[in-house]
DNA sequence: CATGAATGAGACTTCATTCAT
DNA sequence: AATGAATGAAGTCTCATTCAT
């Protein structure tokens, strides 16, 4: 999964052809630890020394595999996105009802970020363009990735509008923030207050209210009536 | 309202804390430029040298008015929050209909952040606890401020639920991210893509969709939702 | 007493003729506080800021009366010596038996240094020549003062040897360290261990043992010592 | 004996602590030069720049081996004490008569301090607690070392009192300053006046007078008589 | 390939001292 | 005479990065 990186991979400059099994292992080790360190401390506060020490290797070795701290950081971010995208694209139950797909996306998003994502998220933000991040190239990469990993949801929304499951009076441009915004806000709050939210409860509540807001309005009324009917019937038996 | 902070430095070996008109001007100048620099480059990448140079003064002068880079940064963040809070609390048309008050809050929020806020916002985020930000004290301050500046909205929502203007089946805990989340997301997008959104159009569209989502629905819908909520809760126990 | 500084005063460059009563008061205030600060923190760690703040005056004012920190320090040291010398010379009971005069000197020395002297003593030492102290002039001054304030004792010893009260086989060159050395050591120990010695008890014990060591012994012992000394000297040539 | 200090830095974010032969050489070089600089200029006036320049290396290299100027200084002081203690404990002729052991200690003390000790001594004094020295930890270390290096003498004195060679009416508390005080005074005088005392002559004279003062009184008379007898006999042959 | 060792560049911070008012 | 304000010069320390072995 981490292996087949499409698209964005093509642009990445291949270095030094480190293709031996051992080398590949080193690269992975460094990336793993670097992700830890970067997400814990942020780009500026992370040190190559720290990364090397946690691996028990020399600092110079890190630079054998990555030309610079920045490059390493870019790789870390790319890999992280790759994982998220893979999880999103791979797990989406496309044959299930739209509401369920929506629930999956919300839940997966929250889950992935709650695990380790907040640190990474902050890292990404700190690398946004114009913020002293010296390489604008990274910024572009990030924007591209961002777009790709929101793609499954955007796709879903588009299909929903086409099928009539989702209200058509809202442009996609507005739907995106409407869905991702609350999720992100909840995640930040969890980090800021230092108490991790209950994943299941939060995901459920959020899914519900969001779906209500974006589902076709007739739909909701109809669904609720059906729901009451079902409950009522069940009671009768 | 620009806040009379009771000189947290009183205990420290203060070198000077001048209060003359001229001095006050200097302090304001430094704060102004520092806000620029911090929001452009983030805390770590900002340098006191840069701040001093932009003002055409000596670095030592900066340290005459602020004991450390960190303290300066704290003041910058505090002042920024103070402005936002003042705008929010001061401008809210409390005698107008609820929907209008809501619109004011959304619009003001977007406006203030679009002016300069994104850099500041990133700055605040980068200083959150656990992310390598060394001073936990700042983190607490920020959380407190955050709470204060969301207060007007939370208050409005509470009053709305009481008056029946806003649906009661959503806990405030969920309403907050539902409203602030999309706003924040839109702002980030504006920064990331480097194209500032059209304030008026965006504010209008966002206000509409959000209000629809949180406003009290028609009678039947309302009852059905409440019913569903009840069943759902019963299930969870 | 602080007024009539003889000898050493002549060489001191008079500055700015600040002879008004008010000015003189300022000078004295600054000197008093500067002595405090210098003896508490040492020359390098003392700051003009600290001195000014304790007086509630501006730093610039300090420099109105003293051209530099170093000059101020020199004055502090000089004044301190002047006081000590005055106390030694003024209080010595010249008409009392030699042993009593000796006891007075020992006791006075310990007393003056225990009050505030240790800090000053360290200060003086830190200004010794070649130790980075930039002005060798101070070093000379100090040496001169040192000599003057040990003068009463040296004088006493010389008179004692002449009168037969003090053994003659010890050159003055050796008597000086024999008497001052233990006193200084006791003082340093008091500072290092942070527990001030009991002045009266210490002075008494020290006086006794030192007097025994330097007082003229019985006839036979005296002669034997002299004999031994003679033989020893003869051997050395 | 040069002390295996158990790396007090183990807990800190050590960058490196190389132990190869080459590294060890660097450490020694730095310590050597640092001792020079610190003893010449004192802690505050010594600069890491100076130390690096004298070695012809970069300042950063110094900080590769020592985490801070202070730590370097501590090591310098510790090593110096270690040498002194080793010389004292190692060379003491325990099987020789007490007077000779005493002479050894006095002579060694003077010798070691005359070589380079005065600068170091001033350094140590300037770091004592309360004098602006910021780290109380160092102060404790110094006190401990001080105690260790006076141990051989204190031990000797105790044994002497037990065996009857040394007068019992003086408490050790008084004997210590009585012996060390004069030595220290002589050393300071040598530095202050810039003319180094003649080691052999000074040591001999000092030993004599001190031993007389502390030796059991009867003993001295007896010894002198024996001495005259010996000389007398020798003359007769 | 791995690394021990070294370092250039630069950051923050302190403080004695000056000068116009 | 007093001072508010400003600053030059310097110092300690950090860290990504290079290079010979």
Structure commentary:
Four copies of one chain form a homotetramer. Chain A is mainly α and 237 residues long. The first copy, chain A, folds into two domains: 16-67, Homeodomain-like (Arc Repressor Mutant, subunit A, Orthogonal Bundle); 73-236, Orthogonal Bundle (Tetracycline Repressor, domain 2), CATH 1.10.357.10. The first copy, chain A, has ten helices and no strands. Chain A has helices spanning 8-11, 21-45, 48-55, 59-65, 69-91, 98-126, 136-163, 172-192, 199-214, 217-236. In chain A, helix 6 packs across helix 8 (172-192). Chain A is elongated. Chains in contact: A-B, C-D. At the A-B interface, helix 2, helix 6, helix 7, helix 8 and helix 9 of A face helix 1, helix 5, helix 6, helix 7 and helix 8 of B. Chain B binds a DNA duplex (21 and 21 nucleotides) through residues 15-16, 18, 20, 22-23, 26, 47-49, 57-61, 63-64, 67-69.
